[in-house]
Structure formats: structure tokens, C-alpha cells
């Protein structure tokens, strides 16, 4: 209360530094690295990657849907053949498996002549590929690459394929695990603002009605953002960048795209609980005394034990998640524990009272129609 700036500036600086790793966030869909190294599936995947790095463990499926005729018409064979040649020339592609890449020595004219014959008279290899990789109006070109599914190289390869996959008279779509990974991350990123906006607007409305103030709800949202920034920064620093991986027993990897959204919703709700406890006690003191400084100090004192006890219990529960073997559960537990600890200590005990001390009577400003009836203020007798 005496030195709000001295408390506020260093504390906010610490929180911003703690949240800075979030600027380097990388997202990718969960893969086998989520499992501990002792799991059989993880051991098999690691062994396969180590012993056969060029086998093409990752397959990107390019699906061509022809608009006129079937895949064995001369024009459609030409379109598929030219696309297969472009795909084969891309960096990182070890091979293209399709009905127009049966033999590397065959030319476009050879394929057109080959598939003009009845299916029963085709060579066994061509007949098998025609049966398994074509339909009445579609053809599939399987692009093999040694790049791991969630790697940046695999993602860039999918983007390069999508940049050159235009085929006259056909619609081309790229799928497979790497393409799914890109599209899922993009979907989550595109729809996250809607989820965040819903949470923020709902929170602002409820707090405005509860506290009869237009300033405190916005202040509460900003305080929660500081808690979340520290939690997200810790997530990236620990699980994405790999710090503490030896202690916690996991393999560093990009975060699953569902984790930040889930963490935001859960942590925002928990932090807002503490904010409501704190602000309602301050509001009660403000109504009694009309003195902002007394209200802030009294509200913090009266809610301190409750907030501390609740935060300690939840932090212990969430830290227990760090003992899990699956990285997703481990990261959610650590992120929530960090957020609760930071929120109950640095934010609620230091930042919130310092900010409210500086805002003074503006904390409780609201239009006349929102204020409602205010009880008559009472003088507080000095303590014995």
C-alpha cells in the first residue's frame, strides 16, 4: 500500500519474462513420443527410426478426383502421370506409389497403351495397383518420405505438395498423418479466438453485474492474463524446449494443439474464482468505509487464508499429474500447477493490490443505472 510502484513494476517484469518462451510455441498433433521410452510401441518406433531411417515410414496420400471419365482414360492418365513426376522431383520424396509409377522406365505413352487393355490382361503389378489405388473416378498417389509425421520437414513437404498439385480436369486433395497434423493445428488456431472471446465476454458481464463496477472486470481479466502467460511460458520452456526433460522423464516435442486451449479455459476459471473471493471482500469493505486503501488491505487480509489454502491443495493435486507417463497429462498438470501457484502468490498478493491501490476510487466507478442501492456506510470501531 505504501509503495505500489515498487511492488508492481518488478513483479510484472518477472511475469512477462516467465511468459516470454510462449512466443516460441510450436504445436503438433500427439504421436508416439507421448509415451514413455519403456512402452513397447515407443521402443518399436524408436528402433524402426534408428535402423531404417530411409524406409519411408511416413506416407502422404494425394487423392485425385477426375471430373470427366475414369482414371484409365488417356487424358486422366496423362494428368496423373504428370502429377506423379512433379511429386517425385520434390525434395524429401523417396518414391511415389501409384498406377502410373509401376515401372520407372515406362513413359506416358506406355501407360496409356497399357491401360487401354482389359484389366485381366494387365501385368500383376499394374493390376494390383489399379485395384488398390483407383476407383471409378479417383486415383491415389502415395508419396513416401523418411520425415517423421510431426516434423517441420514433413509439414513443409505437405505444403509443397499442395502448392503444385493442380491438375487440369481434376480436384486434388492431400491427406495422411502429416496433412492431418497441419489441418488440425490450423483448425484449432482459427477457432481459438472464438473460445477465448466467449470466455472473456461472459466473464466481463458476470463480474460487472456482481461488482457493480466497469473497471474491476477488465482489471480482473488482465490479471488472469498474467497468470496464464507464466503458465504457458513454463509449458513451452519445459515440454517444447525440453528443459527438465531428464527430471520429469519425457521427450521434448511440440505441444498438442488442444493443450493451450484446455489450459486456458481451466486456469482462467480457477483464477477467476480467486479473483471473485478477493474482490467481493474488498467490495464489502469499500461499501462499509468508502476508503479504497482500507478496502484493498482489508479484502486481501480477509481472503488471504482462503486463497492460500485452496491454491495449496490444488497445486498439490495438479503436481501429482507430473508423475503420469503420458506427456499430455503431465504437461496439463504442470501447467495448471504453475498457473495456480503464480496466481495465488505474485498476482493476487502483489499485483492486484498494487494496481487497485494506484487506481484508487476509479476501481468502483460505474454508471448510475448499474450501481443499484448502496447500503449506508458504517464507521468501524477500533479493535480492542
Written overview of the protein:
- With 384 residues, the chain is α+β, with helices and mostly antiparallel strands.
- The protein has two domains: 4-28 and 187-371, Multidrug efflux transporter AcrB transmembrane domain (Multidrug efflux transporter AcrB transmembrane fold); 53-149, no CATH class.
- 61% of the residues lie in helices and 7% in strands.
- The protein has a four-stranded antiparallel β-sheet.
- It is elongated and about 95 Å long.
Give the key terms.
alpha+beta, Multidrug efflux transporter AcrB transmembrane fold, disordered C terminus, 61% helix, 4-stranded antiparallel β-sheet, 2 domains, 384 residues
Share of residues in helices = 55-70%
Main sheet specs: 4 strands, antiparallel
Cα distance spanning the termini? 24 Å
Number of distinct beta strands: 4
Portion in beta strands: 5-15%
Q: What Rg, in angstroms, do the CA atoms define?
A: 30 Å
Classified in CATH, the superfamily of the largest domain is Multidrug efflux transporter AcrB transmembrane domain
CATH topology descriptor of the largest domain = Multidrug efflux transporter AcrB transmembrane fold
Mean pLDDT: 89
Helix count, per DSSP? 13
CATH architecture of the largest domain: Up-down Bundle
